[in-house]
Design brief:
Layout lengths: L3 H57 L15 E6 L10 H18 L3 E7 L1 H9 L4 E5 L8 H16 L5 E11 L2 E10 L3 H16 L9 H76 L1
Parallel strand pairs: 1-2, 1-4, 2-3
Antiparallel strand pairs: 4-5
């Protein structure tokens, strides 16, 4: 049985740890509010961008653009896991990487080569640990991604697709549902799915029937400009979703850690009191035995 001093040291150590976890929970909670407001403001813009592109695509008719063109023979697939730069967020990073490796096995089973592009230090370090070649890694902005970060990612991925270095681009990230729930999402961003444009084209057609639109410049030229912006918007949305999810996961993980620390402190305190009581009882017995020996 541990001594009273050992138990006191353990209680003191766990108490200090609980102070840290509580502080990290408060920090994550404050950051979550900011991240949540950013993604909530971003979602209507992204949805409206898709509707706009669907309307312009319908007006442009049948056009052959590199970002819309599907490669007939898919030999190389680019997988982009979006993780955080730090840990201590429960299963936030692990579940994204787990899903990405499932996609890797499925692609390899289909005879396709996987090329990795990563966002976040956790994804890059995990891929390097497995000695997987990384085409490009972006780090340092998982907490507060900027639109310029999404632009850099979109430029590299679009260039790889247009130059036929990859035939598909898939992004894996945590979508923010609530502070307690993060949903792993797989989204194919290249080629830009034509069925997605067709799905929203009905709504665009309904709006068009309400009034005729004059496009300046021509719809084809507008679509050429919109496609890269759409790609940047989708990546920026994924980064913001991941940032909000990370703070929610970290807040939940730190809250659970603080709760577990409190339960452990209560258990150790009870054991420490029992050990102290046993020591006092032993000392009393020794004093009584000594008195009896003298008489």
């Amino acid at each position: 049985m541990a001594s009273t001093q050992d138990l006191k040291r353990r209680v003191r150590s766990i108490t200090n740890t609980r102070k840290l976890t509580k502080a990290m929970e408060l920090v994550a909670s404050a950051r979550l509010r900011r991240a949540q407001s950013r993604i909530e403001a971003m979602r209507p813009y992204a949805d409206r961008m898709l509707e706009l592109m669907a309307g312009v695509s319908q007006a442009a008719g049948s056009v052959r653009l590199p970002l819309l063109q599907t490669h007939e023979d898919v030999k190389r697939v680019a997988i982009v896991p979006v993780t955080g730069d730090r840990g201590l967020a429960g299963a936030f990073n692990a579940q994204v990487l787990r899903r990405a490796f499932v996609l890797q096995r499925e692609a390899q089973a289909a005879g396709q080569e996987v090329i990795w592009f990563s966002a976040g230090k956790k994804a890059a370090s995990s891929l390097r640990f497995r000695r997987l070649e990384i085409g490009q890694a972006w780090t340092g902005f998982s907490d507060r991604p900027a639109y310029a970060d999404a632009q850099n990612m979109a430029h590299e991925l679009a260039e790889a697709y247009v130059n036929e270095k990859v035939d598909r681009v898939v992004v894996v990230y945590n979508a923010f549902v609530s502070p307690l729930v993060q949903q792993v999402t797989v989204r194919e961003i290249l080629p830009i799915p034509t069925e997605m444009l067709q799905r929203d084209a009905d709504e665009a057609e309904t709006q068009r029937l309400a009034g005729d639109f004059i496009y300046e410049p021509e719809p084809e030229e507008i679509l050429v400009r919109l496609l890269p912006v759409y790609l940047e918007t989708e990546l920026y949305r994924a980064l913001l979703e991941s940032a909000a999810s990370e703070q929610g996961a970290r807040m939940t993980a730190m809250r659970n850690a603080s709760k577990a620390a409190g339960e452990l402190i209560d258990s150790l305190t009870l054991a420490m009191n029992r050990a102290r009581q046993a020591e006092i009882t032993q000392e009393i017995l020794e004093v009584v035995a000594g008195a009896d020996a003298l008489t």
